[in-house]
Each structure stands twice: as structure tokens, then as C-alpha cells.
Write a structure and sequence with these properties.
By secondary structure, the protein is mainly α. The chain is 88% helix and 0% strand. Helix 1 packs antiparallel against helix 2. The longest helix is centred in the N-terminal third of the chain and has 26 residues. The radius of gyration is 13 Å and the shape is elongated. It starts with a helix and ends with a helix.
């Protein structure tokens, strides 16, 4: 995967992270829930960029 595509995927992953963080803050009023969401989204983005999560889903 070329660098431009990785940067694009990273930028696109910002949208669900921000929207999800806002929704979690609205529901729980807790920074812990927001931090956990951001960590989960970072792990998902890292998995997508490394290609490990995609290969795992395709091979099933």
C-alpha cells in the first residue's frame, strides 16, 4: 500500500473517531469512555494500515 493511500485512510478514520467520541461523551459524560474509544479506533486503524486485520477477515 502506498503512502498516499495510508494517509488517506488515516484521515478518513478521524471522522468516526470524532463522531464516536462525541456520542460517548454525550451518553456517559466520561473521559474514560472517550479515551477507550480513541484507543480502539487507533488499534483498528493500525490493523487496517498494517493489513493484518483485512487478511484475517478475508481468510475466514
Amino acid at each position: 500500500m502506498d503512502i498516499a493511500r495510508k494517509i488517506g485512510i488515516g484521515i478518513v478514520m478521524i471522522v468516526p473517531t470524532v463522531v464516536g467520541s462525541g456520542a460517548l461523551w454525550h451518553i456517559f459524560h466520561s473521559w474514560l469512555a472517550v479515551i477507550i474509544w480513541v484507543i480502539l479506533m487507533a488499534a483498528l486503524c493500525g490493523g487496517i494500515l498494517s493489513g493484518k486485520s483485512i487478511r484475517g477477515l478475508v481468510s475466514r
